[in-house]
Each structure stands twice: as structure tokens, then as C-alpha cells.
Amino acid sequence: MNTQDLLPIPGFDQDMFRRVVGHFASGVTVITTSHDGRLYGTTASAVSSLSMDPPMMLMCLNRSSSTHDAVRAAGIYVINILADHQEDLALRFGRKGADKFSGVGYTVSEHGGVPVLEDVLATITCVVTEAPQGGSHTVFFGQVVDARAASGNPLAYYRGAFGRLESVRELDTYRKVRRWVLSRSTPSGGELEIHNLVTALGAEPDDVFNSLVKLTTEGLVSRSDSGAFQVTPITAELSDGLYEGRAMIEAGVIASRAQGFDEGLLETLLQLTKDMEGIRCSADGSLRDFLELHSRFHQSLVRASGSSQLFESYRRLSIAGVWTEAWDDTDWRDLLDHAELSRLAEALRTGETDAAIDAVRAYTEQAKHFARLAIASRGGAV
Ligand SMILES: Cc1cc2nc3c(=O)[nH]c(=O)nc-3n(C[C@H](O)[C@H](O)[C@H](O)COP(=O)(O)O)c2cc1C
Description:
Layout: H1 14-21, E1 26-27, E2 29-35, E3 38-44, E4 47-51, E5 56-62, H2 66-74, E6 76-81, H3 87-93, E7 106-108, E8 115-117, E9 122-130, E10 133-134, E11 137-149, E12 155-158, E13 161-164, H4 168-182, E14 191-192, H5 194-201, H6 205-217, E15 221-223, E16 229-231, H7 236-255, H8 263-281, H9 287-303, H10 308-316, H11 320-326, H12 332-335, H13 339-350, H14 353-377
Antiparallel strand pairs: 1-12, 2-3, 2-6, 4-5, 5-11, 6-9, 7-8, 9-11, 10-11, 12-13, 14-16, 15-16
Helix pairs in contact: 4-6, 7-14, 8-9, 8-13, 13-14
The site of flavin mononucleotide (FMN) has 17 residues, from strand 3, strand 5 and helix 2.
């Protein structure tokens, strides 16, 4: 059946379809070719590997694209896979225009004399074998005649916006190294040796190194003159700054939620404050469990922003791990309660934004005070 003969589904909402399809994350490429002495290029995300034996790719171009006609005529094209800093190229080639290549570095492929962009993450040169039509597009099946890759990270495209991929393995290592540092598995001021962490955490050396660099930017790790990584002692100033940063994010999330929070979240927050009460009142309730509920409360709130970036920034400001080590298990009940969090949960339920932000501030002051006492009791640094 020819897909062009298919009738549109009556009442089918194209905007909705575009939004739903946008949930499929992809990389970003620029398809280049040349024809009749002219260079052509268009940004394309509808690209996929098709077969290993023989090596084949497919890519889909709208028939209204001038690059489409040039690829058809030339019978050869290059898929230039963009790196994460090449959003400008994606935008430049995503528009119509005769001078797309001006100021862009490129070489000309041995095979077919097609422009190959410089400094991209990878290039794959293909010869068109078939070009069937699908709706408004042509699907170009291409046999691979050349393929090269450089090091770097890909530019991603998701729900109409460019982004960066975060490797799950790297993120996992970062979280483990952070936990290691905060739990003082290497004592405060001590040296963090990469090969020890690699063995202890079962991680890749590069990931451990990158995690330590990230923790350096967060102020939790420092580098000595010889370049060694060391656990930075946490002082009152550092701890105050982190709590204030977190409060700012929470207040921002609350203020931006004029339409309110969903019922499920409000119930979760209230339940968490009840569970905190249970732990505080029970003789064998531990500070670790209490702080775990605190974390869950705050994280649930920030997660409601819907922004994974904001949520990750928020997590990076947490130093809760050090307090379980810094306090012995007896005295925390007098210093840390959940009254402000209950007030916050209630204010969110009744939609009182000012009262909710007030509770965030009051809670933050209490947390800062708690942290300062722990730090002072350890001689000014933990
Ligand atoms: C991120 C992104 C992805 C795109 N993906 C495709 C695609 O897969 N196929 C396509 O035909 N157009 C795609 N486009 C749109 C074309 O790049 C755009 O229509 C361009 O102006 C065509 O230029 P041309 O007529 O010079 O070939 C994409 C644009 C952007 C910004």
C-alpha cells in the first residue's frame, strides 16, 4: 500500500501527535550533499542505523527540503553527527538559506565530493540504495561507504529542545563518590586516591576522576598543590551556603506553581511528616531514618518542578550524609523536628504560597543552626 493514499484519521490532533512523538529522544545530525556544484545541508533527527551486514543507515527528509532534492539527484550524502556544543550548527542548518556553509569548516569527501563538516562527533557517508516515500517524507536507505568518529558527547534533541546526554554509569559513580566523601569514608582533610575509589566502588577511573572534579566545583573536595584530591572540611560558611541554595530552589519551585501541587504529592508530603513524628517519638528511631524522610520530603517537592536539571542541582547541594556521622544518636531529637515541614505541607495544601515560602525559610534557619552546632562540636569543621 502506498502511504500517500492513506487518508488522515478524522479529528486526529496533529499538535498532540507532535507533542507525543517529541518524547522520543534522538541525536542531531546535519545531512550534507552537493549537486551541480552547489552545497546542500539540512538538520535532521530522523536518522537511524538500519543494518550491520551490509552496513546501512536510513534517514528521512521532507520532500519540501532542498537538500532532499539534492540527495535524490546526487545519490550520496553524509550524516554529520553533532557534538553537544554544536547547537548553533543545528540551528543554522535547520533553516532555509543559500549561505548555510559560509564560515563553517568542512572538507570534501573522497567518495562523491560531498561536504563533510569539521569537528563533528562522527561522519557516515552513504550511497542511496532505495528512496521510498512515507507520508510527507522520503526514506533514504543508504549503504555506508565511509564512517569515522571522534571523542566527545552527542547533542540530543528531546521534546523540541536541545540537550545533553548524561551517562547513567557516570552519574551513578558520581553519586557513589559523593556519598563516600560525605560519609567521611576518607576522613576530612584526607587524600582521595583514584585507584582506591575505583576498587572500593567498582567504578571506571575516568568516571571517578570526573566525579572528583565535579565535587571540587561543589566545594566538597579540593586539590592540593601537587594535584591530589582531598576531602574538604565542611565549615559553617560552606554549610550555610548550601542550605541557602537549597532554600532558594524550593522557594522558586513553590512560587512557580501558581496552579498548585497535585493531590498525590500533597498526600505524600503529609504522610512523610507523620512518619517523621513516628521516628522522633520512638525510642529506637534513628537520626539516619529521620534524615532520610527529610530528604524524601524535600526531593518530592523539587521533583514536582518537572525539571530533571533543577532536581539534580538540588541533590548536589545536599550534605545530609555528614550529619549522621557528626552526631551521636542521642541529642538530635531536641534540635531537629519536623514542625516547619508540617507547616509547609499544610500551606501547600491550602495554596498559601507566602506561608509555604515562610516555612521553607524557617526550616532552613533551623537546619543551618543544627549544622553549625555539629560543626562547632567538631572544632569548626566536619
Ligand atoms: C532538531 C531538528 C531536527 C530536524 N529533523 C528533520 C528531519 O529529520 N527531516 C527533515 O526533513 N527535516 C528536519 N528538520 C527541519 C529541516 O532542517 C528544515 O526544514 C530545513 O530548513 C530544511 O532546509 P533545506 O530546505 O535547505 O534542506 C529538523 C530541524 C531541526 C531543528
